[in-house]
């Protein structure tokens, strides 16, 4: 009947949410491990509810398990209560499906979605009894692979991984698994395998490259240590998005953060916002076929029983067939009590019409992401959203009965002044004023505006990759200044202000543009007990500070320093299609406050078109 | 139309809590195309209620769920060859189970009168079997129960401590299925064939006790009481054994299994 669990009843009953550790979810894959050539364990290094909400793992889980010779299972970070018990009782970390110790797998694939998960990567390896450093691993240890957005600057965690997969997982995993299977049959040697893997396009084996530094701490050289391996690692891009998509996604028993079916309508983004890493990494834009999506939506709802389906992309309004798709979904699911959720939509007549059909206007809120308060600042970041458009959208929404608005901004953008920050407060006030132009009898009570600010973190492969980031104290000042400006507004009582933690963002900034010297810092921070850094209740800035000091590394070197365009950057060996020339051009334009058209209007020649036969085509 | 569903929840599903189990059934019914009624309003939800939540770490072979149903038609699925077809109760049990995992299973669907009370309000008693305790201890517990006029137990509630007499709350306590079957015969109407198929243990400690809103006895209370009686200085280990609910009952003169629907 039921499988043997790795943990005793006593342990499971003593932790929060034991369902995190039992597996057996609906649509999880059951295979006999003994019949398999390759056992792959996919890991999201954060708590179960977060990891289960991630679409990428679901796609790869489905893709791997389509191979008859491979069994892909999953593991997530044990929560702090379980972590403690596993250490005390020396219980090795195990996969959910077959409850097998991770150490027995052939591969451990870890998705790196945000920098603050790095200490959790070490937790996973440590609890699995896998040596933390790649160089200490033997033939019996799994091959540890990293992927996802943070692998576009893998250097701060280079020592912990055997391979990084740069780009979208749909392309060369088959080659890697075939190579492994073949070498396992004919006498396997880890080093030998890794040097052959390094020749597969898109795969980066950090141990085969060597970095030297100048006296000032900047990089002097990046060289291959063996002949025949590529000096540039080429980002992988899936050109056929109809090939892999799980028709039967996993359904967790406990409520995940994303408790719904997810329909990825396209990849990439045409907008070219200069702060946005995803916008550059996932170029070129690729649409999914609308009929494919319609069929997929039906199948996913039937196979999961979910009561909600969410469209996913970086900018859904740019999907050419959005009205056709959305009206189809509304019609199709009307009688089936399936909600449709549409994040990242531009507020306009179409989206308001759709929203009024799929949600309770009185209870829902509108979201705008102007990212900056002043037009000058928005031009710098190339956020093609004007005040007129925001106010017009808000007015239309208020006329339609909405009275809640969420506004997202960033603080610390390049060249930001106090006036730019004050403009955030003024914009929020103007939206409130717009609301009160509606006659009292018609409007729906008071308006409710929530302003949220995140702190700008310059990321690799963006036009701002050379820019300095604000220090924690500057952020604290700016948050206080914005708060005081909001309080000066006429409608201040209608405006609420939320902001992100400064120290956390600064560490994110260090790790995002770090080099290999940080491996030791991360290692030491972990040894001091850092874990779940993305969770403010766990984040311990003092321990990280100690780790930096003990290694004689100044974190400001990575964040506060404006880099020269000619500097060799840790991630320069990766080719994402978008050229450095384009990034420099965009950087220079930003400093002049010049905007760049989106791809639909004009091709800016970013370079990503090389991935598509005949270049980008937008019907 | 109102129906009552009898279901099994076993194996690792014992670690799924009550609210998550409810969400599980909601999705299970949707996958199966079961035509469950929804509440009105902007956020409609399926109309269903459980007889009594099952504690985490406890399995069951007969828990009950009341559901309002529109029809026995297969509904809400697209492009399914069965769409719109009326299925029999037996076919529905098969169909729902084919969309479930093998640890939550429907074992009965009973059609109720429109005026029927909910199983939650009807519930008066429940039976359990505890396994994983050695025979000697089991027999000592049975003796402890039989030889005492009253057994007072302090029940911790959220607000206060309440004293209850387990002697009144437990109607039968027996070692082994046959002894239990005999002991419960006088005061209960049970689905004995089903119990034999699903919950027959020669080495199990069977407890038939009051349950529901009036008096709610938990099966491990008697174990804890016995433990405190013989070794008051040591802590009671509540995970050293396995508890399985074997059935739930209504009525007071006789305790009738929820699977025996009145009027049938």
The radius of gyration of chain A is: 25 Å
Q: Give the biggest beta sheet of chain A.
A: 6 strands, mixed
Number of strands of chain A: 19
Low-confidence stretches of chain B: none
Search tags:
heterodimer; A: 619 residues; alpha/beta; Transcription Regulator spoIIAA; six-stranded mixed sheet; four-stranded parallel sheet; 20 helices; 14% strand; B: 264 residues; alpha+beta; Alpha-Beta Plaits; 2 domains; ten-stranded mixed sheet; two-stranded antiparallel ribbon; 8 helices; elongated
What's the short story on this structure?
The complex is a heterodimer of chains A (619) and B (264). Chain A has 619 residues and is α/β, with parallel strands linked by helices.
Structure commentary:
The complex is a heterodimer of chains A (619) and B (264). Chain A is an alpha/beta fold. Among the domains of chain A are: 9-234, no CATH class; 260-359 and 600-619, Transcription Regulator spoIIAA. Chain A has helices at 9-14, 48-51, 55-66, 80-89, 118-127, 173-185, 190-197, 277-281, 290-304, 322-333, 349-358, 375-380, 387-399, 418-435, 472-488, 502-512, 518-527, 541-550, 556-559, 580-591; strands at residues 38-44, 70-76, 107-111, 143-147, 163-165, 203-204, 209-213, 219-224, 233-234, 261-264, 266-267, 286-287, 308-312, 339-341, 366-371, 404-411, 448-455, 495-499, 574-575. In chain A, strand 3 (107-111), helix 5 (118-127) and strand 4 (143-147) form a beta-alpha-beta unit. In chain A, helix 9 packs parallel to helix 10 and helix 10 (322-333) runs parallel beside helix 11 (349-358). The longest helix of chain A has 18 residues, at 418-435. Chain B has 8 helices and 12 strands. In chain B, strands 1, 2, 3, 4, 5, 8, 9, 10, 11 and 12 form a 10-stranded mixed beta sheet that branches. In chain B, a hairpin with a 4-residue loop joins strand 6 (152-156) and strand 7 (161-165). The longest helix of chain B has 15 residues, at 18-32. Chain A binds chain B through residues 1-3, 5, 8-10, 12-13, 18-19, 22-24, 26, 251, 253-255, 298, 301-307, 332, 335-337, 359-360, 363, and chain B through 10-13, 15-17, 20, 23-24, 26-31, 38, 42-44, 56-57, 76-80, 99, 101-103, 237, 239, 242.
């Amino acid at each position: 009947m039921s499988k043997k669990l790795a943990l005793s009843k006593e342990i499971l009953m003593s932790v929060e949410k034991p369902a995190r550790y039992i597996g057996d979810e609906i649509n999880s894959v059951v295979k006999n491990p003994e019949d398999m050539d390759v056992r792959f364990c996919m890991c999201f290094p954060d708590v179960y509810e977060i990891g289960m909400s991630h679409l990428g793992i679901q796609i790869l889980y489905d893709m791997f398990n389509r191979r008859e010779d491979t069994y892909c299972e999953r593991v997530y970070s044990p929560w702090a209560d379980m972590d403690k018990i596993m250490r005390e009782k020396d219980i090795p970390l195990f996969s959910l499906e077959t409850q097998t110790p991770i150490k027995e797998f052939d591969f451990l694939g870890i998705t790196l979605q945000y920098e603050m998960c790095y200490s959790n990567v070490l937790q996973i390896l440590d609890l699995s009894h896998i040596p933390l450093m790649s160089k200490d691993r033997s033939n019996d240890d799994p091959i540890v692979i990293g992927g996802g957005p943070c692998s576009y600057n893998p250097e701060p965690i280079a020592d912990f991984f055997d391979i990084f997969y740069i780009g979208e997982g749909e392309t060369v995993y088959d080659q890697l698994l075939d190579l492994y299977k073949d070498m396992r049959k004919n006498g396997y040697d880890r080093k030998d395998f890794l040097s052959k893997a390094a020749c597969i396009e898109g795969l980066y084996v950090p141990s085969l490259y060597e970095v030297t530094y100048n006296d000032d701490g900047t990089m002097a050289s990046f060289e291959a240590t063996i002949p025949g391996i590529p000096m540039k690692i080429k980002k992988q891009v899936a050109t056929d998005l109809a090939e892999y998509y799980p028709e039967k996604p996993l359904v967790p028993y406990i409520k995940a953060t994303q408790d719904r079916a997810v329909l990825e309508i396209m990849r990439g983004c045409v907008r070219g916002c200069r702060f946005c890493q995803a916008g550059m990494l996932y170029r070129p834009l690729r649409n999914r076929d609308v009929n494919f999506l319609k069929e997929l939506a039906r199948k996913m709802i039937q196979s999961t029983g979910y009561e909600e389906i969410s469209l996913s992309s970086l900018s859904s309004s740019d999907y050419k067939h959005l009205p056709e798709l959305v009206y189809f979904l509304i019609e199709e699911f009307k009688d089936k009590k399936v909600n449709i959720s549409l994040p990242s939509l531009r507020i306009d007549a179409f989206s308001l019409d759709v929203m009024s059909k799929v949600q309770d206007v009185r209870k829902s809120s509108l979201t705008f992401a102007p990212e900056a308060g002043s037009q000058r600042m928005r031009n710098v970041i190339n956020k093609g959203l004007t005040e007129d458009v925001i106010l017009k959208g808000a007015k239309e929404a208020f006329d339609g009965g909405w009275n809640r608005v969420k506004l997202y901004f960033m603080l610390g953008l390049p060249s930001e002044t106090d006036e730019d920050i004050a403009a955030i407060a003024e914009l929020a006030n103007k939206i409130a004023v717009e609301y009160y132009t509606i006659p009292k009898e018609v409007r729906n009570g008071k308006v409710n505006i929530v302003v949220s600010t995140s702190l700008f973190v310059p990321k690799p492969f963006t036009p701002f990759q050379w820019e300095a980031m604000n220090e924690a104290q500057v952020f604290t000042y700016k948050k206080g200044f914005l708060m005081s400006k909001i309080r000066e507004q006429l409608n201040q009582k209608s405006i609420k202000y939320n902001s992100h933690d400064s120290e956390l963002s600064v560490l994110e900034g260090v790790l995002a543009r770090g080099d290999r010297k940080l491996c030791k810092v991360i290692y030491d921070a972990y040894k001091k007990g850092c874990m779940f850094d993305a969770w403010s209740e766990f984040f311990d800035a003092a321990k990280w500070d100690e780790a930096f000091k003990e290694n004689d590394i100044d974190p400001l070197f990575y964040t506060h320093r404006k880099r020269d365009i000619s500097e060799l950057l840790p991630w320069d060996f990766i080719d994402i299609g978008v050229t450095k020339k384009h990034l420099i051009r965009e950087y220079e334009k930003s400093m002049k406050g010049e905007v760049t058209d989106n791809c639909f209007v004009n091709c800016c020649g970013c370079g990503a078109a090389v991935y598509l036969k005949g270049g980008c085509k937008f019907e | 139309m109102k129906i009552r569903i009898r279901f099994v929840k076993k194996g690792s599903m014992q670690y799924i809590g009550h609210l998550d189990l409810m969400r599980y059934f909601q999705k299970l019914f949707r996958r199966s195309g079961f035509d469950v009624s929804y509440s009105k309003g902007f956020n409609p939800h399926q109309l269903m209620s459980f007889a009594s939540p099952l504690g985490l770490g406890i399995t069951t072979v007969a828990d009950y769920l009341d559901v309002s149903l529109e029809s026995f038609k297969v509904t809400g699925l697209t492009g399914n060859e069965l769409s719109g077809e009326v299925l029999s109760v037996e076919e529905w049990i098969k169909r729902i189970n084919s969309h479930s995992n093998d640890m939550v299973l429907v074992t009965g669907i009973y059609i109720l009168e429109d005026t029927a009370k909910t199983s939650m309000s009807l519930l008066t008693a429940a039976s359990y079997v505890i396994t994983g305790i050695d025979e000697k201890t089991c027999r000592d517990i049975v003796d402890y129960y039989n030889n005492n006029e009253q057994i007072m137990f302090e029940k911790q509630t959220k607000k206060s401590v309440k004293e209850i007499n387990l002697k009144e709350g437990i109607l039968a306590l027996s070692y082994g299925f046959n002894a239990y079957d005999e002991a419960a015969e006088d005061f209960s109407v049970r689905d004995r064939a089903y119990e034999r198929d699903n919950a027959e243990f020669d080495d199990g400690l069977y407890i038939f006790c009051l349950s529901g809103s009036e008096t709610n006895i938990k099966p491990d209370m008697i174990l804890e009481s016995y433990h405190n009686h013989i070794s008051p200085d040591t802590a009671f280990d509540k995970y050293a054994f396995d508890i399985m609910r074997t059935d739930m009952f209504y009525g007071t003169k006789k305790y009738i299994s929820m699977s025996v629907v009145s009027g049938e």
